[in-house]
Design brief:
Protein name: TIR domain-containing protein
Order of helices and strands: EHEHEHEHHHE
InterPro entries: TIR_dom (IPR000157), Toll_tir_struct_dom_sf (IPR035897)
Strand content: 15-25%
Number of helices: 6
Number of strands: 5
Largest sheet: 5 strands, parallel
Mean pLDDT: 88
Strand order of the largest sheet: 2-1-3-4-5
Keywords: NAD
């Protein structure tokens, strides 16, 4: 993704009355992309003056997504969702994604998906590793199947958006 194709306002160009605290919220599976793609993307965005939120490693050690992160999502104008092979194996990522979809509907958040070495059709149709992860989630969350349904719907919705497709060629 080159920086010209992602034109976001720098923090200096935003008005003080703007409701957005962050220009971009990054949603990603740390194990898959933190030290590769996500670090490079984060660094580039920050160098361009784009106020970007990326969780630190300590946040992922908890089992439930913190209310602080959910609040940060609400305060972000854009969400870049980096959909990697194991993204949906993380309930943390799925909770973020569901919140991002809610913010798209309620606040007009713009979602920019990055298909990180996964096929967009696998994301939309929840095939391959995505299907396997949901089988596990349905087993683990029998008592909260509505959460699993919400995650599935959020993943389908983000999979239908135009985004960037990184792949080996």
């Amino acid at each position: 993704m080159d920086s010209k194709s992602l034109s976001l306002p720098s923090s200096s160009s935003t008005s003080p009355t703007n409701r957005w605290k962050y220009d971009v919220f990054l949603s990603f599976r740390g194990e898959d992309t933190r030290y590769k793609f996500t670090d490079h993307l984060y660094t580039t965005l920050v160098q361009k003056g784009i106020v970007t939120f990326r969780d630190d490693e300590k946040l992922e050690r908890g089992k439930l997504i913190s209310t602080e992160v959910l609040q940060v999502i609400k305060q972000s104008r854009f969400a870049i969702v980096i959909l990697s092979e194991n993204y949906v194996s993380s309930t943390w990522c799925l909770d973020e994604l569901a919140q991002i979809i809610d913010c798209k509907k309620a606040l007009g958040m713009t979602i920019l998906p990055v298909f990180h070495y996964v096929e967009p059709s696998d994301v939309r149709g929840q095939k391959r590793t995505f299907e396997q992860a949901f089988v596990t989630h349905e087993e683990c969350f029998k008592e909260k199947i509505e959460s699993v349904d919400k995650w599935r719907d959020a993943l389908r919705q983000v999979g239908e958006l135009a985004g960037w497709h990184l792949k080996n060629e």
